Amino acid sequence: MKRTVIALSSPRSNLLSVILVLLSMLENYRYRFAIAGGGSGGIAIAAKLAKKYGKGKVVIIEPSSTHYYQPLFTLVGGGLADLPECTNATDSLIPPGCTLLKDEVKEFQPKQNCLVTGDGHQVHYEYLVMATGIALNYDKVEGLTEALEYSDNVCTNYSPEYVRNTYYYMKNMTKGNALFTFPTPPIKCAGAPQKIMYLADAHWRNEGVRDNINIQYYTALGVLFGVKKFADALNQICDERNLTRNYQRNLVKIDHVKKIATFEDLSSENRKREDSPYDFIHVTPPMGPQEAVKDSELADSNGYVDVDKHTLQHVRYPNVFGIGDCTNTPNGKTVAAVAAQLRALYKNLKASVAGTPLKPKYDGYAACPLVTGNSKLILAEFDYDNQPLETFPFDQSEERYSMYLMKKYFLPPLYWKSLLKGTWLGPKEVRKGFQAVKRQVEKVA
């Protein structure tokens, strides 16, 4: 932000200088489209809007200088990739024709078609796209922040600040109890808490110490995975590899000095607490809406942006739309979901601008590439009804090396070079192509 410095020489000039400084802080901006958030969804939709409506019409409000491709964090934590592979400067990713306002949104004023930033700027808009993401709430687990900072066996793959520790602590583990946790949902990438368990299991087997390590998975859910077809396959893997599952157990406290994790039993009436000693623990932190969203008129009762789950249009403010983790759409919160949402969001925004009915519908598509070993992956794809929505013409509940290669080598460049440029709208057309070929083969047969 441009700062104004005025010399002070008298009481009158003092007052004038204060007024001028305040006015400069309250500088107003006006754009046709304001994008709150510069993550994957925000940058992708900004790229499409700028290309369609021209230069100077789109502003992205995002405070972070660094942009991360978070799906690769699992491989970083597992020692199969490094953090720089997930990292780019935010400035370098801003689409041509868009303006980046490096600031955070402090207040949304949808009745005035305005938002206010942390530096006091007012951004007025005709259309607003909410793409603020989801917050990591480490403080919701007593002792977790201190444990991540000061212990040598508490880790999480969900933060670039801590993700490298996971592999380092994993290498130092030779015996004892290894715990992996899943909090009460919603969380982003719901498969990640167990992916790192499979990678840790593979690492310890390769090191010849697996027989000395007791692996326990604690999940607040009542199932291992929400889609039965893939849950069945994952449960079979856990049985074969002696990975113990503890359901409806939510982590509430960590004592990193005594090395004890405390869980609530969500199945009991009084939510009784149980202590579990650990020598290694990977924690998935609780997550929730950003404060500015939760405190706004755009939020539902749980604090998420209140949109129609098919059109992604706000249910009360028709010039407001949402994409990604910040909305209350009941889909898996993944990058794949963002790509599929982008298709519907862009068409619906164009329809809204043109004054025509909103027709395209988002079906809840999400994908979770479940890494189950150093070179194995189950590609789970599903919709709002938790029904499989598979792209490839084979059983995707089976572990495959080809799918692992896709995650590690194909999906990252697809993200950087296509999704963020607004050109990757999910695998819907690919799926249609495979289905057409399959029908032709069956007809010939």
UniProtKB/TrEMBL annotation:
Residues 32-147 form the FAD/NAD(P)-binding domain. Transmembrane segments: none annotated. SUPFAM superfamilies: FAD/NAD(P)-binding domain. Gene3D superfamilies: FAD/NAD(P)-binding domain. One of its GO terms (molecular function) is FAD binding. Its cofactor is FAD. Its EC number is 1.8.5.8. One of its GO terms (biological process) is sulfide oxidation, using sulfide:quinone oxidoreductase. It catalyses: ubiquinone-10 + hydrogen sulfide + glutathione + H(+) = S-sulfanylglutathione + ubiquinol-10; a quinone + hydrogen sulfide + glutathione + H(+) = S-sulfanylglutathione + a quinol; ubiquinone-10 + hydrogen sulfide + sulfite + 2 H(+) = ubiquinol-10 + thiosulfate. Its main location: mitochondrion. It is found in: Mitochondrion. Keywords: FAD, Flavoprotein, Mitochondrion, Oxidoreductase, Quinone, Transit peptide. Catalyzes the oxidation of hydrogen sulfide with the help of a quinone, such as ubiquinone-10, giving rise to thiosulfate and ultimately to sulfane (molecular sulfur) atoms. Requires an additional electron acceptor; can use sulfite, sulfide or cyanide (in vitro). It is believed the in vivo electron acceptor is glutathione. Belongs to the SQRD family. This is Sulfide:quinone oxidoreductase, mitochondrial. The lineage of its organism: Eukaryota, Metazoa, Placozoa, Uniplacotomia, Trichoplacea.
